[in-house]
Design brief:
By secondary structure, the chain is an alpha/beta fold. It has one domain. Helix content is 28%, strand content 20%. It contains six helices and nine strands, in the order H-E-H-E-E-E-H-E-H-E-E-H-E-H-E. The longest helix is centred in the last third of the chain and has 13 residues. It is globular and about 55 Å long. The chain starts with a helix and ends in a 9-residue tail after the last strand. The structure holds S-adenosylmethionine. The site of S-adenosylmethionine has 20 residues, from strand 1.
Length: 181
């Protein structure tokens, strides 16, 4: 288990790798859960923890890498994302979990499983803490990728960019979804 899997609830600040965003190749209208202005997710508008992105209106094409917020804390974010129906979300590919089957499977219009494990980027604060903790044990902290992720696409713009990203296994599910469009 990688460091960022064991610190659920300890920190939300593991960021989307730039090469994944480059492969997606979109500029988003909104990042509803951002560390702040100047972060590298290409978004015209952001909400931070101080704004509470879940309590705000969402407009346009969204990129969402939700905060963990404790056990299943990402589920309300996923529900909001599916209600919004326009954008890309990235979450862990925990395909055996209840939330994957109850929240993602019935509603995701497209899924992309990137090849390889995704190395999320810790904030400076998280990295410094992990380096200190490792040093106290006589070790050197390295950012080892810990798990696979899934990108979820909603709406034509998001789905077309995932299809063309070359990141991995792309599945367009629109013809097979049972939920009313
Ligand atoms: C997993 S990080 C993703 C950051 C960035 N969107 C990315 O993809 O690199 C989640 C971010 O959500 C922020 N956050 C936590 N709670 C939030 C809330 N209620 N509203 C908005 N942002 C929040 C955290 O500060 C953190 O920067």
């Amino acid at each position: 288990m990688a460091e960022h899997e064991s610190c659920i609830g300890g920190s939300d600040d593991w960021y989307t790798p730039r090469d994944m965003l480059d492969a997606i190749g979109l500029t988003f209208d909104l990042d509803p859960c951002s560390p702040g202005a100047g972060h590298w997710v290409p978004a015209r508008q952001i909400y931070t923890k101080a704004d509470d992105g879940l309590a705000q209106p969402w407009r346009g094409l969204v990129f969402m890498n939700p905060p963990f917020g404790g056990r299943n804390g990402h589920v309300p974010w996923l529900e909001r994302f599916f209600d919004h129906r326009n954008g890309i979300a990235v979450v862990r590919a925990y395909t055996s979990s209840e939330w994957f089957h109850e929240t993602v499977a019935p509603r995701a219009e497209a899924l992309l499983f990137p090849k390889g494990k995704t190395q999320f980027i810790p904030s400076d604060e998280v990295r410094e803490r992990l380096e200190r903790e490792a040093a106290a044990k006589g070790k050197v902290w390295r950012n080892a990728p810990g798990h696979g992720v899934v990108l979820i696409g909603m709406g034509d713009t998001a789905i077309n960019s995932l299809r063309n990203s070359g990141l991995g296994l792309f599945i367009d599910r629109r013809e097979n979804l049972t939920e009313a469009a």
